[in-house]
Design a protein that fits this description.
single chain, 235 residues, alpha/beta, 7-stranded parallel sheet, Isochorismatase-like_hydrls, N-carbamoylsarcosine amidase, Isochorismatase-like_sf, Isochorismatase-like_dom
Protein backbone atom coordinates (compact mmCIF):
# COMPACT_ATOMS: atom_id res chain seq x y z
CA UNK A 1 0.00 0.00 0.00
CA UNK A 2 1.15 3.53 -0.68
CA UNK A 3 0.66 6.34 1.79
CA UNK A 4 0.34 8.89 -0.99
CA UNK A 5 -3.39 9.57 -0.75
CA UNK A 6 -3.75 10.14 2.99
CA UNK A 7 -0.15 10.48 4.13
CA UNK A 8 2.50 8.41 5.84
CA UNK A 9 0.69 8.25 9.19
CA UNK A 10 -2.39 6.67 7.62
CA UNK A 11 -0.21 4.25 5.67
CA UNK A 12 1.56 3.16 8.86
CA UNK A 13 -1.74 2.77 10.71
CA UNK A 14 -3.13 0.49 8.00
CA UNK A 15 0.13 -1.42 7.75
CA UNK A 16 0.20 -1.99 11.51
CA UNK A 17 -3.40 -3.24 11.36
CA UNK A 18 -2.39 -5.83 8.77
CA UNK A 19 -4.23 -4.47 5.74
CA UNK A 20 -3.14 -4.45 2.12
CA UNK A 21 -1.88 -7.99 1.53
CA UNK A 22 -1.99 -9.26 -2.05
CA UNK A 23 -4.89 -11.51 -3.02
CA UNK A 24 -4.49 -15.00 -4.44
CA UNK A 25 -5.02 -15.10 -8.19
CA UNK A 26 -6.78 -18.18 -9.43
CA UNK A 27 -6.60 -19.82 -12.83
CA UNK A 28 -10.32 -19.53 -13.69
CA UNK A 29 -11.26 -15.84 -13.59
CA UNK A 30 -14.42 -14.09 -14.69
CA UNK A 31 -14.85 -10.44 -15.63
CA UNK A 32 -17.81 -8.59 -14.12
CA UNK A 33 -18.59 -5.32 -15.91
CA UNK A 34 -20.68 -3.26 -13.50
CA UNK A 35 -23.25 -0.83 -14.91
CA UNK A 36 -21.42 0.48 -17.95
CA UNK A 37 -24.79 1.47 -19.34
CA UNK A 38 -25.46 4.68 -21.23
CA UNK A 39 -27.04 6.25 -18.15
CA UNK A 40 -23.65 6.06 -16.44
CA UNK A 41 -21.15 6.36 -19.31
CA UNK A 42 -22.64 9.39 -21.09
CA UNK A 43 -22.79 12.83 -19.52
CA UNK A 44 -26.03 13.66 -21.32
CA UNK A 45 -27.85 11.64 -18.66
CA UNK A 46 -28.34 13.10 -15.14
CA UNK A 47 -26.82 9.98 -13.60
CA UNK A 48 -23.91 9.83 -16.02
CA UNK A 49 -20.43 11.14 -16.73
CA UNK A 50 -18.16 10.90 -19.75
CA UNK A 51 -16.54 7.50 -19.14
CA UNK A 52 -15.19 7.04 -22.65
CA UNK A 53 -11.72 6.12 -21.38
CA UNK A 54 -13.16 3.56 -18.97
CA UNK A 55 -15.24 2.02 -21.76
CA UNK A 56 -12.16 1.82 -24.00
CA UNK A 57 -10.02 0.21 -21.30
CA UNK A 58 -12.75 -2.27 -20.39
CA UNK A 59 -13.23 -3.14 -24.06
CA UNK A 60 -9.55 -3.98 -24.32
CA UNK A 61 -9.76 -6.27 -21.30
CA UNK A 62 -12.90 -7.99 -22.60
CA UNK A 63 -11.26 -8.63 -25.98
CA UNK A 64 -8.26 -10.12 -24.19
CA UNK A 65 -10.61 -12.53 -22.44
CA UNK A 66 -12.12 -13.99 -25.61
CA UNK A 67 -9.30 -16.35 -26.72
CA UNK A 68 -9.26 -18.06 -23.30
CA UNK A 69 -13.06 -18.16 -23.13
CA UNK A 70 -13.05 -16.21 -19.86
CA UNK A 71 -16.69 -15.42 -18.99
CA UNK A 72 -17.73 -11.77 -19.17
CA UNK A 73 -20.82 -10.87 -17.14
CA UNK A 74 -22.43 -7.46 -17.59
CA UNK A 75 -24.73 -5.81 -15.07
CA UNK A 76 -27.32 -3.05 -15.37
CA UNK A 77 -29.52 -1.20 -12.89
CA UNK A 78 -33.07 -1.12 -14.23
CA UNK A 79 -36.37 -0.34 -12.53
CA UNK A 80 -39.92 -0.96 -13.60
CA UNK A 81 -42.11 2.09 -14.15
CA UNK A 82 -43.79 1.40 -10.81
CA UNK A 83 -40.47 1.17 -8.97
CA UNK A 84 -39.07 4.29 -10.63
CA UNK A 85 -42.10 6.41 -9.80
CA UNK A 86 -43.04 4.94 -6.44
CA UNK A 87 -41.59 4.43 -2.97
CA UNK A 88 -40.94 0.68 -3.00
CA UNK A 89 -37.17 1.09 -3.51
CA UNK A 90 -35.70 2.91 -0.50
CA UNK A 91 -32.49 3.75 -2.39
CA UNK A 92 -34.44 5.89 -4.85
CA UNK A 93 -35.56 8.16 -2.04
CA UNK A 94 -31.90 8.84 -1.27
CA UNK A 95 -30.77 8.92 -4.91
CA UNK A 96 -33.76 10.15 -6.95
CA UNK A 97 -31.54 10.80 -9.97
CA UNK A 98 -31.54 7.04 -10.55
CA UNK A 99 -35.28 7.08 -11.26
CA UNK A 100 -34.43 7.66 -14.93
CA UNK A 101 -33.02 4.12 -15.14
CA UNK A 102 -36.24 2.55 -16.37
CA UNK A 103 -36.48 -0.88 -17.97
CA UNK A 104 -36.41 -0.72 -21.76
CA UNK A 105 -35.01 2.81 -21.92
CA UNK A 106 -31.77 3.82 -23.61
CA UNK A 107 -30.40 4.80 -20.21
CA UNK A 108 -30.16 1.15 -19.14
CA UNK A 109 -28.71 -0.13 -22.43
CA UNK A 110 -25.14 -1.46 -22.27
CA UNK A 111 -22.82 1.13 -23.83
CA UNK A 112 -22.71 0.19 -27.52
CA UNK A 113 -18.97 0.80 -27.65
CA UNK A 114 -18.41 -2.27 -25.45
CA UNK A 115 -17.83 -5.59 -27.25
CA UNK A 116 -20.74 -7.35 -25.58
CA UNK A 117 -21.88 -10.47 -27.42
CA UNK A 118 -25.67 -10.84 -27.10
CA UNK A 119 -26.65 -14.44 -26.65
CA UNK A 120 -23.21 -15.27 -25.31
CA UNK A 121 -22.36 -12.84 -22.49
CA UNK A 122 -24.60 -12.95 -19.46
CA UNK A 123 -26.52 -9.89 -18.25
CA UNK A 124 -27.47 -9.44 -14.59
CA UNK A 125 -30.20 -6.88 -13.90
CA UNK A 126 -30.08 -5.42 -10.41
CA UNK A 127 -31.94 -2.95 -8.22
CA UNK A 128 -29.21 -2.04 -5.73
CA UNK A 129 -25.55 -1.09 -5.67
CA UNK A 130 -23.92 -4.50 -5.42
CA UNK A 131 -24.13 -6.84 -8.39
CA UNK A 132 -24.53 -9.67 -5.87
CA UNK A 133 -27.39 -8.29 -3.77
CA UNK A 134 -30.70 -9.83 -4.78
CA UNK A 135 -29.24 -11.47 -7.89
CA UNK A 136 -27.95 -14.90 -8.94
CA UNK A 137 -24.41 -13.65 -9.63
CA UNK A 138 -22.68 -15.65 -6.87
CA UNK A 139 -24.43 -18.85 -7.95
CA UNK A 140 -23.58 -18.13 -11.59
CA UNK A 141 -19.88 -17.66 -10.85
CA UNK A 142 -19.87 -20.85 -8.80
CA UNK A 143 -21.71 -22.73 -11.53
CA UNK A 144 -19.11 -21.58 -14.05
CA UNK A 145 -16.34 -22.83 -11.78
CA UNK A 146 -14.77 -19.40 -11.41
CA UNK A 147 -12.19 -18.73 -8.69
CA UNK A 148 -11.34 -15.04 -9.20
CA UNK A 149 -13.40 -11.98 -10.15
CA UNK A 150 -12.05 -9.02 -12.13
CA UNK A 151 -14.37 -6.07 -11.52
CA UNK A 152 -14.75 -3.20 -13.98
CA UNK A 153 -17.39 -0.51 -14.31
CA UNK A 154 -19.11 2.39 -12.61
CA UNK A 155 -19.25 4.03 -10.32
CA UNK A 156 -16.04 3.35 -8.42
CA UNK A 157 -17.31 4.74 -5.13
CA UNK A 158 -20.77 3.18 -5.45
CA UNK A 159 -21.67 0.04 -7.35
CA UNK A 160 -18.08 -1.05 -8.03
CA UNK A 161 -17.06 -0.83 -4.38
CA UNK A 162 -20.27 -2.55 -3.24
CA UNK A 163 -19.72 -5.34 -5.76
CA UNK A 164 -16.10 -5.81 -4.69
CA UNK A 165 -17.08 -6.08 -1.02
CA UNK A 166 -19.78 -8.65 -1.75
CA UNK A 167 -17.49 -10.59 -4.10
CA UNK A 168 -14.83 -11.15 -1.45
CA UNK A 169 -17.52 -11.89 1.14
CA UNK A 170 -18.84 -14.52 -1.28
CA UNK A 171 -15.42 -16.18 -1.38
CA UNK A 172 -13.93 -14.74 -4.57
CA UNK A 173 -10.52 -13.02 -4.70
CA UNK A 174 -10.98 -9.68 -6.47
CA UNK A 175 -8.89 -7.65 -8.89
CA UNK A 176 -9.83 -4.11 -9.95
CA UNK A 177 -8.03 -2.62 -12.97
CA UNK A 178 -7.85 1.08 -12.16
CA UNK A 179 -8.31 2.17 -15.79
CA UNK A 180 -11.49 0.09 -16.06
CA UNK A 181 -13.46 1.86 -13.33
CA UNK A 182 -14.85 5.37 -13.30
CA UNK A 183 -16.86 7.85 -11.29
CA UNK A 184 -18.43 11.30 -11.42
CA UNK A 185 -15.75 12.88 -9.24
CA UNK A 186 -12.10 12.12 -8.52
CA UNK A 187 -12.17 12.39 -4.70
CA UNK A 188 -14.78 9.69 -4.00
CA UNK A 189 -13.17 7.42 -6.61
CA UNK A 190 -9.71 7.73 -5.06
CA UNK A 191 -11.10 7.07 -1.59
CA UNK A 192 -12.91 3.96 -2.80
CA UNK A 193 -9.82 2.60 -4.53
CA UNK A 194 -7.77 3.21 -1.39
CA UNK A 195 -10.34 1.28 0.64
CA UNK A 196 -10.54 -1.57 -1.88
CA UNK A 197 -6.76 -1.94 -1.98
CA UNK A 198 -6.55 -1.89 1.81
CA UNK A 199 -9.30 -4.37 2.64
CA UNK A 200 -11.03 -6.16 -0.20
CA UNK A 201 -9.01 -6.68 -3.40
CA UNK A 202 -6.01 -5.66 -5.45
CA UNK A 203 -6.16 -2.46 -7.48
CA UNK A 204 -3.97 -3.18 -10.51
CA UNK A 205 -2.95 -1.67 -13.83
CA UNK A 206 -4.71 -2.46 -17.08
CA UNK A 207 -1.51 -4.02 -18.40
CA UNK A 208 -1.37 -6.34 -15.40
CA UNK A 209 -5.01 -7.30 -15.88
CA UNK A 210 -4.58 -7.98 -19.60
CA UNK A 211 -1.48 -10.05 -18.90
CA UNK A 212 -3.27 -12.06 -16.22
CA UNK A 213 -6.31 -12.73 -18.40
CA UNK A 214 -4.03 -13.58 -21.32
CA UNK A 215 -2.17 -16.14 -19.20
CA UNK A 216 -5.31 -18.21 -18.64
CA UNK A 217 -5.02 -21.44 -20.65
CA UNK A 218 -7.22 -21.56 -23.73
CA UNK A 219 -10.01 -24.13 -23.55
CA UNK A 220 -9.03 -27.54 -24.82
CA UNK A 221 -10.42 -28.71 -28.13
CA UNK A 222 -13.25 -31.22 -27.80
CA UNK A 223 -11.89 -34.74 -27.38
CA UNK A 224 -12.43 -36.92 -30.43
CA UNK A 225 -13.87 -39.58 -28.15
CA UNK A 226 -16.68 -37.23 -27.22
CA UNK A 227 -17.86 -36.75 -30.82
CA UNK A 228 -21.17 -38.37 -31.70
CA UNK A 229 -20.57 -41.75 -33.30
CA UNK A 230 -21.78 -41.84 -36.91
CA UNK A 231 -22.95 -44.92 -38.77
CA UNK A 232 -20.15 -46.48 -40.72
CA UNK A 233 -17.36 -45.25 -38.42
CA UNK A 234 -15.26 -47.87 -36.67
CA UNK A 235 -15.05 -47.85 -32.89
Amino acid sequence: MSGGLYGVATHRTYQRAGFGAAVRRGSRPAIVVVDLTRGFTEDSYPSGADLSEVVAATSRLVEAARPADVPVIFTAIAYTEAEASGDAVAWLRKAPGLRTLVEGSEAVAIDPRLPMRPGHDLLVVKKGASAFFGTSLAATLTGLGRDTVVVCGATTSGCVRATVVDAVQSGFPVLVPRACVGDRAEGPADAALFDIQAKYGDVITLEDAVGYIGSVPAPAAPDAARRPHRRGEST
